[in-house]
Design goal:
Layout: H1 2-10, E1 12-15, E2 30-34, H2 41-47, E3 52-53, E4 62-70, E5 76-84, E6 93-99, H3 105-124, E7 134-137, E8 155-167, E9 171-185, E10 189-206, E11 209-227, E12 232-243, E13 248-261, E14 271-286, E15 296-312, E16 315-326, E17 329-346, E18 349-360, H4 373-377, E19 387-397
Length: 411
C-alpha cells in the first residue's frame, strides 16, 4: 500500500483554476524562481499559478534553484533544489528530473513543471490554497514505469552537417561543416569520439579583380576515462588535426591524464574543485616553415589545470586556470585563466564579472613568412602574440513590486 501511494504521488498532476495575478500571501507561498537560464521562466509562471513568484529570495518562502547538466546520452538532467526560507527555514529538498535527447522542447518543459509542482506540494499542504488544488492521476501510464531495456548499451551517435551562404554584389562567403560523434557514458567509464571537417571560402571583387581566400580544418579526437572512486579518475585522450589557420599539415597527440576532485563527483551540480595533470607527446608537421626553422618536430609537454565552480542561492562562481610547458624548453609555455561571477549583494542588487587572460609563449607553429593584411583581417591565419584578454563587468538594480506573476507576450 505504501509503495502504491508513493507511486500515485509521483504521477500526480496539480491544476489550479486561478489567474496569474498576485494572490493573498497568507493563502499560498512566495517562490523565488532561480533557474539561471536553464528553464522557460515565463512558461513556469504561466502554467503554475497557485503560488506567488517574487523577485528576490528575501521575500520568498521557497527558493527554487534549478541547474542543468547534459547526460552521456545527450539528454538533460535537471537538479531542482527547494530551499525553505522564513517560516520554512531548514525545510529543504532535492529532486532530479531527466529529459532524454528525444524529447521536444514542449515535452521537456512540461516534464520539468511536473517536478516543480511535486516539490512545492509539501510547502503548500497547510495553506488554504491546497484545498483548491486538483490531484489527477494518469492511469494510462500505470505499468509503464518498469526499467527499460537499452538495446544500444549506452551508446549515443550524432551526425551533423550544415552549410552557410552569404553574399552581396561585391563579396560572398560559403562554408561547409560536418561532424560525427559517438559516446558511451556509464558511472564507471566514459568514452567519446568525434570527427569534424570545416571548409570556408570567401570571394571579394573590386575594380574587376577577384580575390579568393579559403580556410580548412579536419580533426579527429578520442577520450577514454575510468572512474577510480568518488574523488579520482584517470584517462587518456588523442587527437589528429589538419588546420590551415594554425599552420598544421598534420598534428598527432596522445595524452594520459589523472584528475582529483576535492568534493565527491556526485556533488558537481552544486560545487566542484578539481585538479588535473596531463602529459602529452606529439608529432607536428607544418604547412610552412615556422619562425623556429622547423617543418616538422616531435615534442613533449605537460599541463596542470584546476577548475572551481559553485552554484549556490547567492549566485554562481566559476574559475579555471591552466598552465602548460614544453619539456625541451620551459620558456615555451602558456598560462590561461578565466573567471565568472554572478553575485547577489542584497535585495534587488546583483553584480556580474567575466574575465579571461592568457600569457602566451608557446606558439611554435607560427609561419616564418608572417601573414598578409587580408589574412589578418579575415582571421585566416594565427598571429603571434604574447597575451590575450577579455573583460566584462556589470550591475543590475531592480526595485518595485515584489511579485512577478504576470506573463504578457504581446508585441
Amino acid at each position: 500500500m505504501k509503495k502504491k501511494l508513493t507511486y500515485l504521488l509521483l504521477m500526480a498532476c496539480f491544476t489550479y483554476p486561478g489567474s496569474a495575478t498576485a494572490q493573498d500571501s497568507s493563502s499560498t507561498i512566495n517562490v523565488f524562481l532561480d533557474c539561471r537560464r536553464t528553464c522557460d521562466e515565463s512558461f513556469v509562471r504561466d502554467e503554475i499559478q497557485f503560488v506567488n513568484y517574487v523577485r528576490t529570495n528575501e521575500d520568498a518562502d521557497v527558493h527554487l534553484l534549478i541547474t542543468r547538466q547534459q547526460t552521456g546520452s545527450e539528454g538533460q538532467e535537471y537538479t531542482l533544489e527547494f530551499i525553505g526560507e522564513n517560516d520554512f527555514s531548514g525545510v529543504n529538498d532535492v529532486m532530479i528530473f531527466y529529459s532524454p535527447e528525444s524529447d521536444t522542447e514542449d515535452e521537456r518543459r512540461n516534464g520539468l513543471n511536473q517536478y516543480i509542482k511535486l516539490g512545492l506540494f509539501p510547502y503548500l499542504k497547510d495553506r488554504p490554497v491546497a484545498q483548491r488544488l486538483i490531484i489527477d492521476f494518469d492511469a494510462a501510464n500505470e505499468g509503464k514505469q518498469q526499467e527499460q531495456r537499452d538495446d544500444w548499451n549506452f551508446w549515443v551517435f550524432d551526425i551533423n552537417a550544415d552549410t552557410d551562404l552569404e553574399g552581396e554584389k561585391s563579396e560572398n562567403e560559403f562554408s561547409l561543416n560536418g561532424r560525427l560523434s559517438a559516446e558511451r557514458v556509464t558511472p564507471e567509464w566514459k568514452f567519446e569520439f568525434e570527427v569534424q571537417q570545416y571548409y570556408e571560402k570567401q570571394t571579394f571583387e573590386d575594380d574587376g579583380e577577384t580575390d579568393t581566400f579559403t580556410r580548412e580544418s579536419r580533426s579527429a579526437e578520442a577520450l577514454l576515462v575510468k572512474s577510480l572512486g568518488d574523488h579520482w579518475s584517470a584517462g587518456i585522450s588523442s587527437e589528429a588535426r589538419h588546420s590551415t589557420r594554425s599552420n598544421y599539415d598534420l598534428l598527432l597527440e596522445g595524452s594520459p591524464a589523472i584528475e582529483y576532485s576535492v568534493f565527491p563527483y556526485r556533488e558537481f551540480t552544486k560545487r566542484e574543485i578539481t585538479f588535473m595533470y596531463r602529459f602529452t607527446g606529439g608529432l607536428y608537421e607544418y604547412n610552412e616553415e615556422t619562425v623556429y626553422g622547423k617543418t616538422s618536430e616531435k615534442l613533449l609537454q605537460q599541463q596542470l589545470s584546476s577548475q572551481i565552480r559553485f552554484t549556490q542561492p547567492w549566485g554562481e562562481f566559476e574559475a579555471r586556470i591552466v598552465g602548460s610547458a614544453f619539456l625541451h624548453d620551459f620558456t615555451k609555455n602558456r598560462i590561461g585563466t578565466d573567471l565568472q561571477l554572478d553575485f547577489r549583494i542584497f535585495r534587488g542588487l546583483s553584480v556580474y564579472f567575466r574575465g579571461e587572460y592568457d600569457w602566451i609563449n608557446n606558439q611554435l607553429s607560427i609561419p616564418a613568412g608572417g601573414i598578409t593584411e587580408q589574412e589578418q583581417l579575415l582571421n585566416l591565419r594565427e598571429r603571434a602574440t604574447s597575451y590575450s584578454y577579455e573583460l566584462s563587468f556589470g550591475l543590475e538594480l531592480s526595485f518595485g513590486s515584489i511579485y512577478n506573476n504576470v506573463v504578457n507576450p504581446r508585441l
